[in-house]
Structures are given as C-alpha cells and as structure tokens.
Amino acid sequence: MRAAAAWVEALVQGDSDTARLMLCTGGLDAFPDGQALQAEFDRVAGGGETAPSIVGVERRGDRDRVLFVGRDASDGPVAFRVSVLVAPYGRSICGFSAA
Predict the structure, then answer these.
(1) Which residue among 32, 67, 85, 93 has its CA within the 20 to 30 Å range from the CA of 58?
(2) Nearest to residue 58, comparing CAs of 6, 99, 12?
(3) Using an 8 Å Cβ cutoff, are 54 and 67 in contact?
(4) Measured between alpha carbons, how far is residue 15 from residues 49, 59, 62, 64, 93 in Å?
(5) Chain centroid offset of residue 24 CA
(6) Within the chain, which residues score under 70 in pLDDT?
(7) Model pLDDT, residue 45
C-alpha cells in the first residue's frame, strides 16, 4: 500500500518524473517521460484530484490492487486502482485504471 500511496502522491504533487521511475519495466516502456505519465494519470483519475484515499487492497498472485477514491477537478467523485508488483527485491507500479 505504501508504494501505491507514494506513487499517487508524487503524481498529485506534479512530480511525474519521480512517479515514472517507480514504474515496472512495462510501465517505463509505455510512458516515454513523466509528462506522458502525468497526462494519462490525469485522464484516468480526473485531473486535479486532491488527497485521494486508499479504501481497499486486493491481492491477486504477485500483485496488490489498491483502490483509491478522491475528488476530480470539478469536485466530483473519482475512483481508480493502482496495480503494485510485489517482488522479493521491492515493489513497483505496474498499471492503473479507473475503478
């Protein structure tokens, strides 16, 4: 959960380059730079989200799927999931999607 929370916080704060470095290999391949990652995150999470909260975690094999809820740029509700690869060497973000 901490890896997902730190990743979301980096994106909420606009530190997309740091957030990109937290991605697994597939994520690094999908986003050539932090700006591309930020744009996709804003599209999925509604942009302008403030203080999204973790409301659930589901383990599927070697991944945790962490559910966040928050408010989008127009103050409407938004929910999204962050997939975290759990490996002996650490954790990395391997995807995110609208919930």
Answers:
(1) 32
(2) 99
(3) yes
(4) 14, 27, 27, 23, 15
(5) 12
(6) 48-50
(7) 87
pLDDT digits (tens, 9 = 90+) for 64-91: 999 999 988 888 899 999 999 998 888 9
Side by side, the strands of the sheet bearing 77-87 are 50-60, 63-71, 77-87, 90-98
Tell me which residue has tokens 């203080």: 51
Query: In the prediction, which pLDDT does 68 show?
Result: 96
pLDDT on residue 48: 67
Where helices occur in the chain by DSSP H, the ranges are: 2-12, 16-21, 25-30, 34-45
Measured distance CA(52)–CA(48) in Å, rounded:
10
Task: With CA atoms as reference, report the closest residue to 45 among 96, 5, 91.
Answer: 96
DSSP 49: -
How many residues can be counted in the chain?
Answer: 99
